[in-house]
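Sample 1 of the test manifest.
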Amino acid sequence: MAWLLNLLQVILFVATAPLLAGWIKKLKCWSQNRMAPSVLQPYRDLFKLVRKETVVAEGASWIFHMAPYIIFSVAVLAAAIVPLVAVELPTARMADVIVLVGFFGLARFFQALAGLDIGTAFGGMGSSREMTVASLAEPAMLMAVFTLAVSMSTTNLSTAIATLLHEPLTIRPSFVFAGLGLALVAVAETGRIPVDNPATHLELTMIHEAMILEYSGHHLALIEWAAQIRMMIYAVLLANIFMPWGLADNFGLAALGWGAVAIVVKLVGLTVVLVLAEAVLAKMRLFRAQHFLGFAYLLALLGMLTHVILEAG
Amino acid sequence: MTAFSNFISTLEQQGIIRRSEITLTPAKVWQIEPKEWGNCARLARDAGWRWSAGWGEDLGDTLRINSLIEMSGDYLLLRAEVPSQAPELPSQTPYFLAADRSERHTRDMLGICFLEHPDERRWTRHQGWGEDEHPLRKVFPLPGNPPEQTPPDKDYPFVKAQGASVYEIPVGPVHAGIIEPGHFRFQAVGETVLNLEERLGYVHKGIEKLAEGRDPEGLARLAARISGDTTVGHAWAACLAMERATGIEIPERGAYLRAIMAERERIVNHLGDMGAICNDVGFAFAHYQFGRLREEWLRDNRNLFGHRLLMDLLVPGGVAMDLDPKAIDTLDTALNRLGRELDELLAILDRNTTLGDRLYTTGILTSKTATTLGCLGYVGRSSGQSFDVRREAPYPPYDQLKVKVPSEDLGDVGSRFWIRYKEIRVAMRLLRVLLGRLPAGATRADFPVPAEGAEGLGIVEGWRGEIVTYVRFGEDGHIDRFFPRDPSWLNWSALERIVLENIVPDFPVCNKSVNGSYSGVDL
């Protein structure tokens, strides 16, 4: 039963990731007074890409061919660690949050290699920028999740969230700091404004898009889908770590139903905040990303410190 | 005026210059000995003249080279004639950097050798033409001699940079967005731009050759298509040149309507540019707001003038449309609404620090460089240049109006953003006056058949800056030579200076803040 639910949750996770992307797009259009495409548009785009011919750059090595599959599989594996509707599922118990960060690192490693592989100026530029951002984002993210780990005495996401869920409502200042830090990391890692601009057509300003410029067809579809899953993972992490209420802790139908409703409400709330923030911000100069992520690290560190000073003992 | 006469008398005493019989309003024409062509440029530069435009003509046995220079609103057309066989004369580029690409263009098109020109490479003439083929020579057939397959322009010797971790980024001519084609070659260390070289000419349409043999109306239609966003500006310059060649005056109402269209074109393009600058730094909100305002004006254009971009409304002798009093009311209302919306929008943008952080101190063009390159329009005016044809050498109806010329002196992207806003405000004030004072009467005069050899110079302030157009008629009132000089000729090279020491990802916004026309330069 648990394994079946587990499988269902992963499928749900992967299948609804494009929906989240479509929803963000819709909110974005509304915030700009524009008519929005259907929330199903990302599915149509993926479907279109799958049917299209896949063109591979001359001189591409196996890395370029394999990267989309690796990136996508790793994204699916990562999704299996994150509790979406219910906690205490088998796969979530198997791996902890450091594995999750490791998965992100692995995907990024192959993405950057693939960007370099075909030897175009844009690919190399994108990879170099991505690694710059990543090298600053990863420590901040680890620091944020360590705050959670130290508070809950476990690095396992599912167990930590379950513990949180069962204890009476307490305000933890450390979580506020860590949550804000993780939110900033999420913005940088998912290539949103003000770090990267997912809607741009300007090759010279791109980070994520520059690495995948040479991809087409089903390769591109896999990479796009993986990016949507990553977006979803970050959103769910933020929602379920820092607002765990509503998550199902047993496998009863009512609990699962409430879990599903809860996560939808939380995601809607989060995306509204994201879109509003994007509406009032211009993209930063590339080198400001350091300050931005440095600040994220500082917040996460403050979270840890507050825990040690105020909450431990 | 004393500086002007001093300069002339110096040149006359040295025997470099000879007064010509003809005047091409607003310029005085002077003949130069070919061997003194470069020397004359040196003296002009030292006396503080600005190089404005250059072109060549095939007169049969001889080729004529023209250089238009300007100081305080006085224009001087320098002319030299060289034999068609082995034509050569000293280059003006060592003294006027602005003449660089223009001379390369003339060399490509007419086969004139500019001695001491620092750059031997082809410019407009990509590899589609053979070494001895010069398309603007009269003997060259209009359809050309196109090879079976045009060879790619792939071996263009770009400037190289070497050293540890220096790398090259080729961008274009095909871009990811829907923009015109042009190639940019960057040398960068990390993210810092060491050097940028532009390679244009990908939208060469043969405008100059296509103009030959056209009738006046046909030329106005062609001029309206030199650069789609400057259709009024170029058509006006071409019509003005033809009208001056025939010596006719257009009805006052026609002149006023032309100015109304030109100012509308200025406002529409500035609105689009301001939005695009914001979009290039990822501030989509402003992009859509400016886009909306621009679209409202384009729709007014369509409803009241008959064309969104006001194409083909200017004809030799006047304009081919009229506004009824109701339309004037609508335009007035639109002006008021735009004023209110801009107040609101610009207040938001001014207070947004993330936007300011991207625009200020990015892509600085110093006043000195702007002077050296002869930058025009908003590019020049945001770097301390104050030239505006509407004020310095006014043509009807601006001779009856007071034109305020705004300026900024920081020369960064922010300046080029705000100067556009100021220019919109000036244009709005002018529109109010023009609409209020619109005289009654005809809008169009009959255009007579021009005499053979009649020539004229049309200089107007387009939305990008000073447009210079030269027209000479041949037999039966057909065009023999047409040369339009878009302001982008002088602004493109500023971009190469602007991006130096900036980071690669800031190039797009620098580029957008200059917004040169590819089509207007490739011809």
